[in-house]
Structure formats: structure tokens, C-alpha cells
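Fold it.
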Amino acid sequence: MNDTPESLSRRIADLEATLRLPVPDTIRRQMEDELRTLISFGSGNQFGDVKVGDVVGGDVIKDTQGRVELSADARLNGVAVGVNLGTIIYGRDPSEDERRRLVWYLDALAGDLRCLPIRGLDTNLAQANNTLAHSADTHGISLAQVYVMVATTQTVTVARGTAAVVTRYFQGANPRQALLPAYDPDHALPDVAVVNRSDMDREEGKESYHLVRQRLGSEAARAGSCVLLGDPGGGKSTFLHHLAWVLAQRGLDQLDATTRLCGWEDDRRVMPVVLPLRRLATTVAGGVPDATHVYTALRTVVADKGVTNSDDLLTDALVRGAAIILLDGLDEVPVAATPTSADRMTTLRAVRAFAERYKKTTVVLTCRTRAFTNAVQESLGWPVETLAPFTLGQIRHFVPAWYDGLVTAPFTREQAARLSAELVATIADSPRLREMAATPLLLTLMALLLYHRGTLPRDRPRLYEEIMLLLLGQWDKVREGQNLAEVIGRPDWTSDRLRPLLDELSYKAHLVGTSQDGRGRLESSQVQRALTTFFAAQTPPLDWGAAERCLIYFEQRSGLLAPDGPDSYIFAHLTLQEHCAGRHMLLSRDAVDQVLAQRTDDRWREPIFLGLGVVQANNPYLVEKVLRTLLERDEGDMPKPVARWYRDLIMVAEIGHDRDWAYLRDQRVDVVGLHTALHAGFTTLLADVAQPIPAAERINAGTLLGTLNDPRIPVTTEQWRTELAQRNEHFGQPTSYWCSVRPGTYQIGGWKKGEPSADIALPAFWIARYPITVAQYALFVAEGYGSSAKRWWTPEGWTWKQASQRIEPWDWGGTVYRGANQPVIGVTWYEATALCAWLTERLEGALPKDYVMRLPTEAEWEAAAAYDAHMQRRNYPWGNEDPTPERVIYNESKLGRPAPVGCCPSGAAACGAMDMVGNVWEWTASSHKGYPAQSGVVQKDFTDDDVPTRGGSYYNDSSYVRCGARNRYHPDHDGDYYYRGVRVCVSPRLAHWF
């Protein structure tokens, strides 16, 4: 066995965790046998006989409580620690003073990060678990205990090879069956969970497979400087904090299961420094951004841990690449500069200058996905990874660990097990809850509410509202003889009476957003004035002392609005600030104007969405008014800029999805009218060759349009017939789904020097504007795979279908099928030709005489893709300019999947067809061997690897998205199924070539 101690222990833990789940007996026996083998093997490895307190290779093992005490001379359990990292930092054995300063810093950092803060979410739990905290200012439960590894949307190969290589991952040792639970994303953690598999090649009866898993955040950080993107509450900050805690522990020579990182060698030690970018922006404010600003901010961070004279430590670590700098929250840096803060781009310039000065030092920067624009990416130029939503496997691991972390009297371990089982089962059975639980923060809130209330809201704003009610309910409880109402002199009040004031304060806090993580710092005098004004307006009015007493109560007993130094307050959690700020906006008299005023600032997106969720139940027509106002082309007396209108369209669709179109329809909102307006707007957006918004936003628009029955795509028979009736013969001026290609003689082939070419005469034909989509293919799936479907399949295709027992395309309905208007992928040539025959039959009478629906030949494909209005051939459909992500979907688009069809209008062919190159390879109907001389002849059937594909895909580099790029496959090849799709044409019945 080649397992490392790290992978071996993790594999054992995964098997043990899986065996606690309901698993079929046959699979259970296989897993138990494997577990016994691994344990037997592990008993002889270098960690097999380690006892608590032992030193392994200089590493100190913690005590049974998972804690160690730092002595005054910077020793743990009497052992001098920090020597290993100190030697790396200084390039020699550190002096005793250097070692102590390093250890003091690492210990303080680890102490600050030891617990997962829940103070802003639950005061009682924070206090009950304070015994776990390293200091009185840190509240929460053990971060190491509850942390679940996070993954990115990138993938890593797990196994590649023949069936014999991959059988261990599948039930019945059969790659065509389901994954074993130990590797199933619904049960396993992402370091072993197989998220995609493909049948790569098939020759002489041999099959070759490719299995991939998600790339972990820790692996991304280990690879070098990068940007880590994620949605609100997606775990970005928690990941950085956990990474910093682990690396601090490693620097203290603490090596055990909690300090191992996938992708990091056990002896890999670096000094972590966490710097909120909001804090850096204040350092840069008013100056010319350079590396010195970042260094100054880092030095202050180290000094804040009680380490004096830290310049040598920091400088040596940076110069030797013995530090990792973790920059958190770019989205919390204001877009425009303020008197106390630099703007976002200026702050980034300082970061870039710092990274260029200290080239050996890794820098990891986090940002909300929406705030990371093309301009930001171009300014930084680093690799970008996006955190993936939690899988059900991650959820299954997090929930029991979270409840176990709460086990203190009177909450028992039995109660923890019951609640965790109930929550996991509820999430697994509810698609809505499963979608919400994919966000770590929402999952935490679910666990918290179930702990307190025994029920779970199915909606994000309702979930936050319940959390607020939970926190406010703490104010209504009597402590030391009084509750908040009695403290302020209104014993008949409940905490609800303070909601308008709290909402207003949240709004004002979010306007300034002055704290390091984006929470707004409110001056004590400001809060007191707001309280005084609020109380004075009551009937009868409260005296000025009520405000002072209320503030004292907040300081001593509130987990919602907390002191931030001697003269200011902040909201305990950014999410709660955003929620209450959204309430204030949408419950105000000028709610629509408030939305319009703030919608251009990404920091206000979440408050707007949450506020709309709050008002929806009681005032759905306000939601409709907001949507209709955003849909309008004009704003006031002036037309909106086109880019602004396009972004408003996208926002409308996102709000509708977030608020659930079906629920809005039930509330009598005019959803049909809103969808009609969105159809027209998105169609304009996706056809706009000027492309005033970046490709990423157009792709988002295309994805949203796919959820609204994309009107560009004919799906039903009636729609296909309508599009056929509207076709014309005007080259480059399509009025329907069909693009006319003129009859004539075309040079085919000869793309490279010395390559043969042929002049091929082609009759007039029409090519589809887009590749066939999932929605279009779905109707064929319903009819084309049954026992009576033989007439649509070629003889070889029917034989293959019967032998393979194919009832739908490979992995149909799997994770790669993300939208109705995404190109269909996973179909063989046999399936593609059967689709064409099925369409031809359904459209009899609508097709021109002696014309059929079929795959284009290579000659037809090249004529449509490469020739302009003057019959001149071009290297790319758009001309001879090099590919860019604005013109074509290829690897530089960094999607990791096909995009919705037709998102790059400036990359269209002269005939009007879109996505002719990039996005997906397309099957054709002629012989690969016969190219170019026979490239205009339709091949009736195939048995060998003679089927050409054209156009390249989202996965390929720029060399494959040329009009001359070719590939070939077996007709039954469904491997690499992520990359190949289908485009149809209306062409004459041509003689077949044999």
C-alpha cells in the first residue's frame, strides 16, 4: 500500500463514518474487510504506537483534552517548541529570544482562532462554551472539532485507467453501478468523494475511466498565491481562520489529526498572518499604494498579539517564503475611497506590489463572488478558485460535530445524536433545505434553530428572522430580577418594540461599514442619541436615562449589539446587520427608491434580497413593484445606460428565483407578465454584439433565462414548426432559429501549410443557430429510447443501444446538466443521429421537399462556421482576431462546464450561428478518413473511430477553437462526455459514401 499516514488515517476515519450510516449488507461487508486491512496495515506505521505526550520527529502530541499550556519561557509541556519553524524563518537555529517571540505570536494567534465564534448567534451557547475559549474575549465552540474541509469548483483526478483500476470505488465492483457510500458525495467528504466520472476511451473491448473529486481549499492555498471566491456565508473567512489555526499549531510543533491538511506535507511549516482587507484599506488611505502599506499593516497585526520588535521575524519570514498571508474580505473594502479608507482597486495595487516584492511568500485573498469583477481579476492576475457549496456528505459530517460541540449539561450526547440525525434527515428529504444547507452559515443557523425551537424555516430571510427573534427573546427573559423592558421602564413592552430602531441602526451601520469585516461601527453617542430620540417619541415619553440604561444592558447582556472599544458598538454578526438593514429599506415608505439607490453597490445586494424576503408574505405587491421598476428601460426622465438595464434584468431574475416564482404566482403576482418582459430583455442582452457587460454576467443571464423557458430555443413540435416556417434565405440575417448558408463551392481543408484541401459544391441548407440543448433533447429521451424506437436509430446504433441497455444519455440528470438551455452533452453519435431522425419524422410537412433534419457534414460545418458574406474563409467564426472569453467559451472562460447557448454574440459566425467554436465539440455526419475530398458526403453508419467532431469546447485551449480544428471518436463513445454536443441542420438527403 502506498498510503501516507495522513491519507491512511483519513481513509480509516471515512470508512468508520460511512459504516455508521445505513449501508446495504453486501457493501457493509466489503467496507468492513477493507477497514480491517487498513487498521492492520496502520498498526505498523510510524504513528501506530504514538501515545499522548509523546514526541514524534520533534512534534509534541497534545493531552487528552486537546490542549497544551504555554509556559512563561515559551515551552509546551516542558518541550521547547517553534524551533522547526524558527529555523525555516531565519535560515539557522533561532536564538532563544527569537524562538520565544515566534512562539508567543503563534500561541496568541491560535488562541484567538481556537473557537468558532457564535456570540452574535447565541449568547447562551457562547457563554456555556466559554470554557473552551483561549481568552475571555473569544467565545464559541472548538473550531477544530466542528470544521469540515471546504472544496472548490475545480477538480482533481482520483483515478484514471481500466475498469480494474476503478472498481474499488463502485458497488459490485462495477463502474457502471453507483458509487460506494465511502466515495459518494452524499456521504463522503470531498477529499475522497467522486463528483464526476467519464468513460474515456474504448478500443477492442477495453474501457478506460476517469474519476475526479473536488479540489480542496487547502490544496489551492498550498499551490501558491490565489484568490478564493465564495457567496455570503460560504465559509471563506472560516476557511482562512482554520488554515491559520492549523498552521499556528504546526508552528508550535503540534501534529495530530486536527492539524493535518490535505495537500500539505506533515512537515510543511509556515507562519500565518491574517489581515482583514478592510484594515489594510485604512492603512493605505490617502497614500500612494505600495508594498510598505501591506508590511506596516502586517507588522501591526503581529504586534497586536503582544509581540514587540517583530520586524526581524516578519521580514525574514517574508523574504524566505516562510509566511503565508491571508487577506480576508476584499468585498468589504469600499468601491470608492472615503476619508478613512482607500478604495478597492487602490488597496489591490498595494497587495500586488507587496506580492511582487516578496515573491516567495504565498498570499491568499478572499472575496465575495459577485464583487470580483473582470477589472479586479485583471488588476491582480492571480489564479482564482471558487468555493463549492456544501455537499450532503459535508453536511452529514458537520451536523453531528456541531451538536457534539454543544454537549455540556444539561444537553446530553444522546440529545446531540437525536438532533443531528433529525436535521440531516430533514435536509436530505427537502430540496429547498438542502439548497440552503449548502451554505455553511445557513447550515449553522439551521442547527441552532432546531436546537432551540425544534422546527426549521424553509426560506433564508425567514431563517434569519427566526434567529433575530431568538436573540431578541433573550432580552425578554428576566435576569437578576429584570428584563430589558423593566430596565428601560416599560414593563409592558416586548423586544419587538425595539425592532424599528434596531433596523435603522443596522441600516446606518451598513452605510458606513467601518469595521474590519464590513460591519458598521456606531459611535456610542450616535447610538445613545438614536435611543433617546426613539424613547422620547413614545407615549408617554421615556426619560433620557432610559437610553443610558438600555446601552448598559446591551453591553452586559446582549449578544446582538456589542461594544467595540470604549466608544463604539458593532452588530455581533454581519449577516444580522445585513438582514436588519434590508428590513429597514423595504419596510420604509420609499422602499422602491431605497432599492434603486443602493442596487449598484454589491454590498447592498444581500440586504435588498433579505428585505424583499421579509416583506413578501404580507406585501407581495411591493416585491412586484420593485421588479417592475427594475425592468423599466427608463429611470425617472432619463433612459438607463444599457449596461445598467442589463444588470437590472439580471437582478430581477435573481430576485424572482430567490423569492420563488411559483410562490409569487400563488400570491397573485403577475409572474407571466414579468417573465414576458424578462424574455424580451434577456434576448436583447444576449444578442447585443456591443457586449456592454462582461462575459461572466452574460453567462449568468443565460443561466437565468434557462430557468424561464428560454424563448430562443424551440422545444415543442409546434415551436419547431414555427421556427421552420420563419426561416429565410438571407445570409447573415436570420429571422428565426435557422441560419441560411448559401449554395456554392467551398474550399474545405487546407488549414495548415501542406494540408490537402478540396473544393466541395454544397446546395443551400440551414444550420441551427445553437447546439441542441438539454430541454430540446429531453423530449427525445421520453420517446427515443423505448422498445418501439428502432426506426429512428441506425442499425449499428440500435445494436449498441440494446447491448448497452441504454435508456437515456450517459449521466443524464447528473450534476453536469445544469440548465435547460445548456448544450446537451453525454450523447454518442448513434444517439445524435437518432435524435435527427426523430425530429425529421415529427416535422414532416414543415421541412422543405427532399430535406431532412440531420447532423451537418464536415463540409457543411466549415461552410457555416468559416465563410463570410464575401465567401472569404476566416480562421475563426468572427474573423481572424485571436480568441478571448468575450468571443468564445474555452478554457480561459474558467467555467468548468458548458455555458448556456449563445452567450458570446461577438463570436457569432457570419451566417448568424453561435457557439460554432467553443462550448462543446459537435458531432458531424461525414467520414473523418474521407476528409477533405469526401467531406460533403453523409455517412450512413459507423463502426470504428471515424466520426469527426468539430469546434472545440469549454475545456480546450485556444488552439482548438479554430474553424480548422478537428477530432474523431468511435460512434458509441460517451467518454469525456462533458465536452461533446450536437448541432443539427436542415439539409438535402445526400447519397451515402461507403
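Confidence is low (pLDDT under 50) at residues 41-67, 128-139.
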